[in-house]
Write a structure and sequence with these properties.
Layout: H1 2-39, H2 42-56, H3 65-91, H4 94-101, H5 104-116, H6 122-139, H7 148-177, H8 183-209, H9 211-219, H10 221-244, H11 247-253, H12 257-267, H13 275-294
Helix pairs in contact: 1-3, 1-8, 1-9, 1-10, 1-12, 2-8, 2-10, 3-4, 3-7, 3-8, 4-6, 4-7, 4-12, 5-7, 5-11, 6-13, 7-8, 8-9, 8-10
C-alpha cells in the first residue's frame, strides 16, 4: 500500500510545481516555463539517485533497449503535455485547467491495458469513471458558449491528459524493463534518464528557437530553481508509485490533485469555486474512495 502514500505526496508536490510554473509563464512564455522543470529538475534527480545508492549500497541498474524506448516515449510525451497544460492555464483558471488534464485517468487505464497488460477490475473501472465524471463537472460550466475560441483550452487540457497518459505508461514500462534492483532504484534511475532526455531535447530546441526565454530563465534562477526542485520531487514520487502498482491506480488516486489545485486557486490566485465545481470535487473524492476500497 506504499503507492498510496507516494501518490499523495506526488500530487501535492505537483500542485506546487504547477502553481510556480503558472507564474513563470507570464515571464518566460509557455515553452520557457516548461523547460524549467526539466533543466532545473535534472540536478535534483541526480542527487536523489546518489542518496538512494549511498544510503542503501545498491547499484544503479544498467539501461537496455526496451528501457530506453519506453523512457524516451514518456519523456517526449511529457514535454508536449506540460506545454499544453500551461497553455490551457493561460486561458482558464488554474484549477479548471488542471481538471481538463485529468481525463488522463481514463486514457492511462486504456493505454496501460493495451501496452503493458495492466489488469483492471470492475470496481477500479467504476472508480475511474466516477472520478472522471467529477472532473467534467468541474470543467464544463452550464450555459457556457462553446465557440471555437472557448473550446481551445478544453482541447489543450484533454490533449495534455492523453499525452500525460502516454508518459505514465512509458515511464512505468521503462521501470519494469530494467533488470534487477529494488523498486526505488529502478524508479529513480528512470527519473534521471527521462529528465536528461527532456533537458537535452527541449534545451537544444530553446537554444535554437527561443534563446531569449532560455537565458531569461537563468536570470530568474531563484523561481526556476524552486519549480525545478518541486518538479523533480513530484516526479520522484510519481515514479515510485509507477514502480509499485499500475499507472491507472496511481493516476486515478492522483485526481486528488484537483482538490489541491482548488486550494491553491483560492489562496494564491483568489479564484473561488462555484457550487457546480464543488460538486465535481465531491465526485472526485468518491471515485478515489472507491478505488482505495477496491485496492
Amino acid at each position: 500500500m506504499l503507492w498510496i502514500v507516494t501518490t499523495l505526496v506526488a500530487a501535492a508536490a505537483q500542485t506546487a510545481r504547477n502553481a510556480m510554473q503558472n507564474s513563470l509563464t507570464a515571464e518566460l512564455g509557455t515553452l520557457g516555463a516548461t523547460q524549467v522543470r526539466f533543466i532545473y529538475g535534472l540536478p535534483f534527480s541526480l542527487v536523489f539517485l546518489a542518496v538512494a545508492s549511498g544510503v542503501t549500497g545498491a547499484g544503479v541498474p544498467d539501461p537496455n533497449c526496451a528501457f530506453l524506448m519506453f523512457t524516451a516515449a514518456g519523456a517526449l510525451a511529457q514535454i508536449i503535455a506540460t506545454a499544453l497544460l500551461l497553455a490551457a492555464m493561460r486561458e482558464r483558471s488554474f484549477s479548471v485547467a488542471t481538471a481538463f488534464t485529468k481525463t488522463e485517468a481514463v486514457q492511462v487505464a486504456i493505454f496501460g491495458l493495451i501496452v503493458l497488460g495492466d489488469e483492471l477490475s470492475l470496481a477500479r473501472v467504476i472508480a475511474i469513471l466516477i472520478a472522471t465524471a467529477g472532473v467534467f463537472l468541474i470543467a464544463v460550466k452550464r450555459g457556457e458558449n462553446w465557440t471555437a475560441g472557448s473550446m481551445r483550452p478544453a482541447l489543450y487540457g484533454v490533449a495534455a491528459g492523453g499525452l500525460y497518459a502516454i508518459a505514465a505508461v512509458g515511464f512505468r514500462g521503462g521501470i519494469l524493463s530494467l533488470d534487477g534492483g529494488d523498486f526505488y532504484m529502478r524508479a529513480t534511475t528512470t527519473l534521471v534518464w527521462s529528465l536528461a532526455l527532456q533537458s537535452a531535447t527541449l534545451g537544444l530546441w530553446m537554444l535554437v528557437y527561443r534563446r531569449a526565454a532560455l537565458f531569461k530563465s537563468f536570470a530568474l534562477w531563484r523561481q526556476s530553481l524552486f519549480a525545478g526542485f518541486m518538479g523533480a520531487f513530484a516526479s520522484q514520487f510519481w515514479f515510485l508509485g509507477f514502480s509499485l502498482t499500475s499507472a491507472a491506480n496511481v493516476r486515478t488516486l492522483g485526481l486528488i490533485e484537483v482538490l489541491f489545485a482548488q486550494i491553491v486557486s483560492r489562496r494564491v490566485f483568489s479564484q473561488v469555486a462555484s457550487v457546480r465545481e464543488l460538486a465535481g470535487m465531491a465526485l472526485v473524492v468518491i471515485g478515489v474512495a472507491v478505488l482505495l476500497a477496491a485496492t
